[in-house]
Give the backbone structure.
Amino acid sequence: MSILVYVEHDNSTLKAETLKTVAAAQAIGGDITLLVAGFNCQSVVDDAAKVNGVNKVLVADNVVYQHQLAENISLLVTELASDFEHILATALTTGKNFMPRVAAVLDVAQISDIIAVESSDTFVRPIYAGNAIATVQSLDNKKVITVRTTGFDAVATDGNAEVVSLDIVTDAGTSSHVNDVLTVSERPDLGAADVVISGGRGMQNGDNFKLLDGIADKLGAAIGASRAAVDAGFVPNDMQVGQTGKIVAPDLYIAVGISGAIQHLAGMKDSKVIVAINKDPDAPIFQVADYGLVADLFDALPELESKL
Amino acid sequence: MKVLVPIKRVIDYNVKVRVNPDHSNVDLANTKMAINPFCEIAIEEAVRLKEAGIATEIIAISIGDKSCQEQLRTALALGADRAIQIETDESLDSLNIAKLLQKVVEEEQPQLVILGKQSIDSDNNQTGQMLAALTGMPQGTFASEVKVDGDKVNVTREVDGGLQTITLNLPAIVTTDLRLNEPRYASLPNIMKAKRKPLVVKPAADFGIDLTARTKLLKVTPPAQRQAGIIVKSIDELVEKLKNEAKVIS
């Protein structure tokens, strides 16, 4: 079998989540080809060639792919589709955006957000915000799949795959990019961090999120937030962990002043170790935490920072 | 311009989901149902476009059995002008839903189709993008701002790491994210008025589309429960446990 994996990137670096999608491809089994579509993205191609278990890296380097617009990327992927039985992308904003277009053009169903592979046509995926787990069989001969990375461990990056340049240029001409307003941060991405520390409504305001900074610095952690904190305007939405935000599964997740609404748990309950700090001993977050500390966060956070 | 808003009847988001004892699916018997929250945002956005003088007619559409008329009536109460139910007793894959919607788009020729980015039951996040591909329209998914400008629409999208703004030629597809707007409540007079607004029922079989399922649901299980851990008494104990027991910090 042949599997095509779409590489998530920003034209300069390959997103670490792609390494987990490749692990999903390995679980399916077959020859794995990566596709890098972007503009001036040679450094991504260099990264992609090192991904373990990959036979070939296809490169479409053209200005029409610079912003990975769904219209243009989906045309490119459907042109390549005839050589592959499985087409995989990471369930991040780019993959979620263009993959259903690929499935529709190929006239096949898409299996979204898989967290495990049962066989080459049967996959496991969460439904109802993770409150139920479905096992789904694809009846199509071609499988279009997005992968939720929390279910797979990243593959190593000491490989050496062949790189092949494509001269396919697919421009739908129906959409154009205006601008990106991205949060600039020295910290690791929420989705890729080994440690995440998140604040909730208990933080009381946006300024108090600074209390998390020192701890995050010491642990090399990303900083997240609950939807309550985002809705209250404390922090921007791209920090949101939960059903409607980012789904994370770091080695260590520290929830501070977060009560533990179902919607938040859906985004972090697959973390390896969960720590909860909350002054309400009845907060539901303690029911999923490995280590709970009932304390006022304004006392606990400075002390934690000093003792790390 | 005409705006089409496809909506889905789903379990109310406040209701706790239970899996059937035979693991065949989730148990929806006697469960409170509602408009999918993202679809509600789609209706609200269409109504705001009409209030701004940009949209001239809003058509709500739902695909399902007779019970989804309840959600269509709600959409009419919220400001849709008329409604279409495509009647089927089957639970259809997103692709088949998109194919049915494609036929309606061909017939109605809307300039804008606004959908929720995903339904909170199957969590697929597919239908809008599939409809866009089938109709050849551009798409602005996960929208947090929609601005119609002549024959184009500017859509600001919630992407990993921040926001992205793109320009789409009309007609176009938009899928809504949570922060696009805060939906209003239907007023009692509008609920009464909605009862008299037109609602047309069309059998799915009349569309001439092969609606054979492309996926098979083999089983549904409850998620693995996490065991509650221990309550530590102090930061010192917490740090000690994280270092020596969990070994996640050094």
In short: The two ends of chain B are 61 Å apart (CA to CA).
